[in-house]
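Narrative summary of target 7.
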Amino acid sequence: MDPVSQRDALRVIQEIVSREKGGPLGTAGVRELETVLAGLASAGAQIPSAAAGYSCHEATIVFADLRGFSAIAARHPPEVVLAELDRYFGRMVEIIAAHHGAVDKFIGDAIMAVFHADPALPGDHARRAVLCAIEMQLAMRELGAQARSMAALYLGIGISTGPIMAGVIGSQAYRAYMVVGEEVNLAARIEALSLRGQILMSEATFEQVKDTVHAGEPMELHVKGRAERLRVREALGIPGLDKVVPRQEARKSPRVPLIMRLDYWLIEDKVVAAKSARGRARDLGYHGMLAELPSALRMHTELKLAFDLPCVDYSAREVYARVVYIAAEGAHWLAGLEFTSLSGEAEDQVRRCVQMLLQGDCGAASWEAVPLGNGAP
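Modeled conformation, tokenized:
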């Protein structure tokens, strides 16, 4: 048995143990198993055919992503960034293992964990996954309070429950243990739409934990690849264990970068100016946007906005906002605009646009296509 085959066998056995017993082997058990496999190799044994196959069973998938990590990585030396990433992810891995989950992979500044179902304990995998996610958020608060070399980081977490397929795929040149299925994709999509410090779970997960987990009201999200909206809920805590997800400030909405033409009219004494000006939206959220403007505006200035949303083919023409932030940037000005009034349809389309952009489901206009200036063309 070559070393690659030994690793394949070890991972398959670990997956079987996790599924049947609700948790992976400990360090001592892994070492003992490695010794057994090495002994088999010296005797010329082969991996049993069942180990090279696949399994189909229910599981709960957890995706967790570090919010703001890319911006922090750009401002610090690599050794500092990697040390901080190791500090955060090291703690997350410990929590996942403590709840009998298996880390499937690291994806840049994100981590994927799998909680396999135990037929003898229906729903236990979902409960373990949600409790794990809550304790991850609690640990993030502690780690943030201890941060010295850089700003605190935050996690966005998505959870989904359903059938998966698992097994070793590839060739002798390279093989890897894989967990695949719609629920894996769905957990990743839900995570992309979560805010910092937030835990969002699918309705299927909620159904298995609703007797023990305190959750928010259902929310409907637009998910890439699905015609219908997806219903999710926010996990807020587990009252029976006195576990509460820490609340984060300034997390009203995800923000997504884009370049979008923006026409705006000043409002003075409740009268809309006759002449418009042209700006560019630089990012968009559910409740406002960051705009680049040709001239400075006073704080709390009221505006009427008009813009065409990418992705959703919708023209918003009666949106009202106020200036909540203003700063010079070269020859232009950056203004934070908070929506104060818009129709229900416009609000829904803004949310849909943000969610589609977050999932990489469409592009946005180019800089060259959106000049700044006064007056409509």
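DSSP finds eight helices and 18 strands in the chain.
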